[in-house]
UniProtKB/TrEMBL annotation:
Belongs to the ATP-dependent AMP-binding enzyme family. Keywords: Ligase. GO terms for molecular function: long-chain fatty acid transmembrane transporter activity; long-chain fatty acid-CoA ligase activity. This is Long-chain-fatty-acid--CoA ligase.
Amino acid sequence: MMDPKSLLLAAATGCASAVGYYSWQKAIKPLAKNTYFDLKQIAMGMKVFKQSQEVLVSKDNMISIFDKSLSLYPNKTMLIFEGQHYTYDYINKMASRVGNYMLSCGMKQGDVVAIYLTNSPQFIWTILGLIRVGLIPSLLNFNVQGKGLVHCIKVCEPVCIIADSDPNMQRNLQHVYPELNNIPVYIIQSYEMFYPPLEISWIDFDEILATSSDAPINPEIANSIGSLKCAMYIYTSGTTGLPKPCVLTHVKCLMVCIIADLLQITQHDIIYNTLPFYHTSGLFLGMFLNIHVGATTVVKRKFSASTFWEDIKKYNVTGVIYIGELCRFVLAQHNRNKKISHKVRLMYGNGLGIDIWETFQKTFRIPHIYELYGATEGNCFLINFYNRCGAIGRLSPLLNRLNPAKMFLVRYDLDTCQPLRNSEGRCIPVEIGEAGLLLGKVLPEHDLPLYKGAKEMSDAKFVYNVMEEGDKYFNTGDLLYSDNDYFLYFKDRIGDTFRWKGENISTLDVANVIRILDFIEDANVYGVKVPGHGGRAGMASLKLYDGVNLTNEQFRKLYDCCKKNLISHAVPLFLRIQDNMELSGTFKQQKKKLQEEGFDPSVISDSLYYIDRSMQTYLPLTENMFKNINFKKSKL
């Protein structure tokens, strides 16, 4: 039997051990882990900072990075497209033909050329040729049509349009051409099959390039283009109205390319890119980033889940750029009993759902997935280096203190979609786990217009006096939350937007199109969750004019109207007919309850309909069809 002194000593030792273990679990271990994460990010940050300072001092532009790789790897394959290999030297000579022709036409630095092309080598050498002589490519979304296409062309004020030979795109352009004041249109034959221009007055660009000189263009022209000058316009997805042309300066484009070093992409890599070039991800992360290091890019006109792994193996791909929906489609297509062999060592992109992340990575044995976050016009960039499932990046208090361009998650007003303020008029940071609106500090040297057009468009994206008097922050419009390790996760788009199949959809845009129809009094558009799909599917609640009962012809008119004026992903998949619209006290449409009810006919007494693309109309949504959609027996 132990004496009292021994018992007391044992008890004290036990208590000390318990306290020590508790301290380790609750304080020391998390501190050690976060210190490790911080030190790793600081090391990476210093590398990026050094490179960014070199970019700023050098006053380089987009042509500088291309010329650097051209001088190092002239005969190396820069781009693979439909089995054909194109070297850096060949792309350069074709770009020179483009630039020399534009100079011969008397075009001058700062003139804008609208680019209405699908993914192809022609896209790349065309914009390189334009940029080399100081022209500004304005990259049109080839899914946009009707009024949206007219707006996108007119707002950038182009001297000409370079368009694809694709018959559907030509028809879209032909349909709106009477509103374009006879802007010259050049047609590029980017398809193996010859498609003649639908308009005789349109000009065959291939014939012009065949006779244009490929002699090197005077380097003084490119050297005279300042790094703060506009390199190109890339359009927003129109989540707050019509698409806006974002001003991408040369220095901003170069900063994006620096990411290659963070991802450890080198000249030995072969990157697979199926994302559209009219978007920042497809063009910069999926193409120019690779040019920066002399890598090879396999370019696809569009994504195909059925040929994905076939291409990966055929071209010895080592890296893939993705959006979340791409990964979802590849996973859904996969035969679980078939083992996929490949050389892919990394995938990078945005939107990979937390629900499929681990399954996707384990199923296909992808060593590293880098999830990125950023906006074309924004100043907030995040990257998840750690294979942390679902995270889009990490931002600890220490890292934010060291970063001049600080970022904060702040509380927001559900009705106004603006930050909430405390008694001193400052924004209120959120707690761990609480969703907050992401704001990014605008530094004076980077305080430039966001969009081409009225100053008010850019001003609307800024928030002032956020943390101190006189400061200025960019409002991303995105809701994020952090965990105890300061990893950040995407929650949702604030306000009247939702994401479907990689596109941010403006509910106001869709509603305005539907309201064109003379039998619809009002439309309330929102996104609803569909099992097995990322993002939200578009649904429209409709109020009809008194005495209207929708006929089959009217349903077809509704379908045709949406298809004609909206990109395909924005066309509502479900309809709900309501006698009265629910409005808030400030006469705003109520969406939350509608979103919660979804499209379930067992809980909704209103008439429901679903889209049938094969019949080009909307049909009644029965409980049986509802089950088929949920169990993926019917395709949306």
